[in-house]
Amino acid sequence: MSGEESRDGGEPISVEQVARRAAAIAEEITPQQLAALAGGAPYVSVENLRAGYGRMEILHGIDLCIARAQSLCLIGPNGAGKSTVLHAIFGFNNIFEGGIYIGEGEKRLDATSLSPSEKLARAGIAYILQDKSIFPGMTVEENLWMGGFLKSRVAEAKRAAEEIFDKYPRLAARRRHQAKVLSGGERRLLEISRALVMQPEVLLVDEPSIGLEPRFIDMVFEILRDLQQREGKTIIMVEQNAKKGLEFADIGYVMVSGRIAIAGRGDELLANPKVGELFLGG
């Protein structure tokens, strides 16, 4: 969202006004409530997380719970800390307090201090960045091979890439083309597919719809839905298009000023008039 937020039938309101109004409707969210939304069996848990950049704290005691093969969408005004949550889970920023845990039962792994490469290799977490993360001068095939950089043998990465081509004929038809000639939707498909080469269990997806035409947005969400429902991937997403994100996700969190202000099922937040007024054009 930009510096001004517009609502259907009303005057634009600034990001600061959105943040103030969202803070005014914030609820007391307990870890028990978040665990209940995850069905009482979280696969990814974030506990009392305080994190940020340098010495600046952006997240002020965040809790998060999501079950295996479940999806969670984070929405909120600019500066709320949504992408910072993804960065913290993947190891892109500084964690001052709290923990990040992946898995269930005896296989639960404390991933708090792991590096990004360790989180991918050991915890099965992949990060799908915002647009423009592909290598434009490389072919589609070479971009996919780059996604397998942690594979112990080149042959493994190439085999994983072939599985991607079998799954997505649209990419297979472009395998020898440089990535810079792809459409916006094809580039986003390549970004998602490159992350899949390592066969992760958890996908962190940052703004999947950004910069895309509506027809490509629908395509990307269909791909993510297939990965969740058919392949059992756990998806944590930040999405500027709050309506699209909440329609997709099982769970939604509204973030304000580095905290969780509201949490509920995606359909509940879609039906919440206060959330609708601020984020859904209602």
Structural write-up:
A hairpin with a 6-residue loop joins β6 and β7 (109-110). This protein has helices at residues 15-24, 31-37, 82-90, 116-123, 140-147, 154-167, 169-172, 184-196, 214-229, 242-248, 266-271, 273-279, and strands spanning 4-5, 13-14, 42-53, 56-67, 71-75, 94-102, 109-110, 125-128, 202-206, 234-238, 251-256, 259-265. The model is unreliable at 1-9 (pLDDT under 50). With 282 residues, the protein is an alpha/beta fold. The chain has one domain (4-279): 3-Layer(aba) Sandwich (Rossmann fold). It contains twelve helices and twelve strands.
List the helices and strands and how they pair.
Blueprint: E1 4-5, E2 13-14, H1 15-24, H2 31-37, E3 42-53, E4 56-67, E5 71-75, H3 82-90, E6 94-102, E7 109-110, H4 116-123, E8 125-128, H5 140-147, H6 154-167, H7 169-172, H8 184-196, E9 202-206, H9 214-229, E10 234-238, H10 242-248, E11 251-256, E12 259-265, H11 266-271, H12 273-279
Helix pairs in contact: 5-6, 5-8, 8-9
